[in-house]
Amino acid sequence: MPGNISRPGESATGRVLAILSAFDDRHRALPLAELASRAELPLSTAHRLAAALVRGGALARRADGRYAVGRLIWELGLLAPAQTGLRQAAEPFLHDIYGATLATVHLAVRDGDQVLYLDRLAGHASVPVVSRVGSTLPLHCTGVGKVLLAHAPDEVRSRVLASLPRITPFTITRPAMLLEQLARVRRDGYATTVEEMTLGACSVAVPIRRGPDVVAALGIVVPSLARDRRRLATALLVAAQGISRTLDGSGR
């Protein structure tokens, strides 16, 4: 019930946590009234706390007035043992691939029905891409996203297949065609995209496993796959195996 009547004596810390907990994978940006309702706080209290959290970087206020999770929360999240271990394990392999190709290299995980970019290496010679560390993009039209979608639970695939927005003229929007591609990803061990997220950008991506489970994806973005598809896929698979060995041996 809106308002804090249902939680008399709520501490300041509890109210702040209620504000932050109002966000989830289906509510990534909230107007103040909805934020207050979901946090079960009076509008004035939500406004005051949200303003303080924006000043501290825990929330961000968008141009349309809606609130979203801020950079501070993302940076703190990266300190969690699981994410820290994955990024640390992958870092030297990302640098090796980038050094050999000068192409954009991605490390990503699934965040609900989207792909979340944990790390990215790019330079002046790399193909321009829209991804950035901490950003999310659709699963169905990114290389790393297709890898993660191919190995996601059935209910996640069903939700994603129910809505396949067209990002470029080359985005796969037919569920049957995407399902065929996902089956091929599981069979061949890698995914590809051809200008499906960004015109002029193609990608190859492979799964990173910890034990039998796919926990992340490793990808590279290049201008064309006409000649180097197999070579890039092989290089990524070797790197992914190295990351997996590091994860399996770390005990994290």
UniProtKB/TrEMBL annotation:
Question: Domain HTH iclR-type: where?
Answer: 10-71
Q: Which domain of life is it from?
A: Bacteria
Tell me if Transcription is a UniProt keyword of this record. Answer: yes
Keyword set, alphabetical order: DNA-binding, Transcription, Transcription regulation
Ranges for the IclR-ED domain?
72-249
Q: Which SMART domains match?
A: HTH_ICLR (SM00346)
Query: Is DNA-binding one of the keywords?
Result: yes
Q: Per the database entry, which stretches of residues form a coiled coil?
A: none
Q: Which PANTHER family match?
A: HELIX-TURN-HELIX TRANSCRIPTIONAL REGULATOR, ICLR FAMILY, HTH-TYPE TRANSCRIPTIONAL REPRESSOR ALLR
Its recorded name reads IclR family transcriptional regulator
**Taxonomic lineage:** Bacteria, Bacillati, Actinomycetota, Actinomycetes, Mycobacteriales
